[in-house]
Amino acid sequence: xxxxxxxxxxxxxxxxxxxxxxxxxxxxxxxxxxxxxxxxxxxxxxxxxxxxxxxxxxxxxxxxxxxxxxxxxxxxxxxxxxxxxxxxxxxxxxxxxxxxxxxxxxxxxxxxxxxxxxxxxxxxxxxxxxxxxxxxxxxxxxxxxxxxxxxxxxxxxxxxxxxxxxxxxxxxxxxxxxxxxxxxxxxxxxxxxxxxxxxxxxxxxxxxxxxxxxxxxxxxxxxxxxxxxxxxxxxxxxxxxxxxxxxxxxxxxxxxxxxxxxxxxxxxxxxxxxxxxxxxxxxxxxxxxxxxxxxxxxxxxxxxxxxxxxxxxxxxxxxxxxxxxxxxxxxxxxxxxxxxxxxxxxxxxxxxxxxxxxxxxxxxxxxxxxxxxxxxxxxxxxxxxxxxxxxxxxxxxxxxxxxxxxxxxxxxxxxxxxxxxxxxxxxxxxxxxxxxxxxxxxxxxxxxxxxxxxxxxxxxxxxxxxxxxxxxxxxxxxxxxxxxxxxxxxxxxxxxxxxxxxxxxxxxxxxxxxxxxxxxxxxxxxxxxxxxxxxxxxxxxxxxxxxxxxxxxxxxxxxxxxxxxxxxxxxxxxxxxxxxxxxxxxxxxxxxxxxxxxxxxxxxxxxxxxxxxxxxxxxxxxxxxxxxxxxxxxxxxxxxxxxxxxxxxxxxxxxxxxxxxxxxxxxxxxxxxxxxxxxxxxxxxxxxxxxxxxxxxxxxxxxxxxxxxxxxxxxxxxxxxxxxxxxxxxxxxxxxxxxxxxxxxxxxxxxxxxxxxxxxxxxxxxxxxxxxxxxxxxxxxxxxxxxxxxxxxxxxxxxxxxxxxxxxxxxxxxxxxxxxxxxxxxxxxxxxxxxxxxxxxxxxxxxxxxxxxxxxxxxxxxxxxxxxxxxxxxxxxxxxxxxxxxxxxxxxxxxxxxxxxxxxxxxxxxxxxxxxxxxxxxxx
Length: 924
Fold this sequence. Notes:
The protein is an alpha/beta fold. It has 42 helices and 16 strands. 59% of the residues lie in helices and 7% in strands.
């Protein structure tokens, strides 16, 4: 990343400091957005493609372009830029972005009163970014080996430099790298979930490994599984599962022992080469171990050169440490307060207890433990206690978090940073900390020995609960860039705290509180698998302890009901959970959760294509909303009523209600995405667009759908984007005969839902893709894809579009001259309309039934067809459905234009539709 400060207009960007100021005042901007802005300003005046910017901002992770658009929107907001009249960032649609203002590099200002020393990187950063000592031949050999094997494991004791070598190897490769740090996982069962998260595959599927394998087969990816030793068995099973399902996927693992997986190539990493005893300073300086020590000592002291007086002690010290890189670094970090001789003597005395058999792998581990013992026992009692307590954090933690678990937090964390036992990273607005893995494991043992483990875990759980409870609205409503702190950094510690809380020696009620408090974070980060594991445990505890906390039990059941909004795997559990949540909410008089539950039941009714039942839920929602103190609830009630009327075939009434609802909703100060999953304005406009089309205004409908897509992208709300694509953009483009536009929307829907837990909408995308195949003259392909996806939707109870998809299936069968089967499908669809009240596409079903009778070879087909055609016209006129009525023009084809009258595929060039004439492209 470019480190030089740049000035543009009143702004100064300091990438190295990760800050942006305006006229000297700080401008809040997220870390990722800073990276993107630095990339743009570094190439001011040049068009950067979306792919180029993404590679810069997310070098080790695959993300889709929606993420980029969200961050660009945040940057524009911070700069006061607008899309209509951009002053700084101009968008070239479909290509990328250009920074159009003049960006002037600034020299590093040096005050006359103060000369600033260059900021020193943290120990962890030095290990990653600095020269790799004594490993060039190993790196070169492993780089070549990685081209020819699919699983390469770098094995060696803790602290020897396995991860450093892995990064050096991958730095020479052009392969896309996805780095997965397993050290933060408390259980090997989370490996698949963690890898899927890194690949942006956040699915509720029972076979996550299959989805991972599919992604890896499509892209040239090498997945790094770093620090496998504590989950080595599960890691081996996971790798074998993926390799068995793919032909080109590759893994690079680091571990203290081999995975012993099929096809594994193991490289045992040796310690750094050591000098012989009695060598001169120049000869010793050729040793990688000595080189590492001298570099780290120089960084610690602000300068150090190996002289003849010190060489004997440095050589002895490096040999005592067995050439283990981490141990050498820890020793060198003491050079600020100790001489080399004193350091070597102190280290030697510390080893007297654990120095037996240092040449075996196990005792080399003890050698590292001895180094940690030495570091630990030179700490003051306060520092020792602090290190023990900080070991409960997995991954990064903040100063506030440290304060919550420490008895005497003042300055002790920074003292531990100075002694290389805690790593610090300065961000634009705060500093965060973490313990190296070996240090954390060591300190955790000391905490268990102290007898304080339970009390400190309680402090951690209480801190996280309070943090998430205070940030509930922020977690729901603000973009991730606008979060006051990076809540996602607490996920690793949250996992640990929840695991402890529900263990026999834990505190289950604390686990209940923490689970409920963390719900917004789980949902916002789409960590659904982990969320529902914790929710299930918490509900089990509360169900076994009646009246312990009914309000939290209500919230947990509501959380358990959420998957039915998007998953095809658990059709019954979701609605049962919402039913229980409603029962508790009614008993508690909680209007908010009554509305949430009723809304969910309405969604379930609509998804099951039961609009008459949906109307009952809509009326129940309106009744409860009338007693709510929030005026938004009454507006949302009109939204779901308007949507229900559309599916009932009352389109004009639906459009009138939704138009009024949108006007009232726009006057509200905040959106209602939080409580009802979707942005309510976008959801209303989805049905409004559909109403426009049915009422004969095709172009207006398409324009409304496109505006909804753009709005969903601009607010960065994934569920709303998937919803508008599935329910408006894709089907309306097909109904209007805009096949190229439909292809674009379907591709976006498939891409967007592939990496999220949105499997229902992914199935919808496949159904729309099947209809495109019918337009292309591929009736067999249409049937195959349509039936496969419809079967999944049927099993899950998501049949909102089933009658329409049955009409597509019937036309595909007719194109293959299988009229009897086609008639059965249409009759099934019409029977459902009679029992459910669904009428929105009934005229089309009647029209197709007439054509099937006419073309099916019945001697009385013409007369019978006229009966069906007349019934369809009557239904269309009753609904005011001008678009459906237009399709009854006898001069127009009833099959897609790719098929001739005899059902054989042909290419037909259709003219553009007249503004007020039937669109022949829509008559399929």
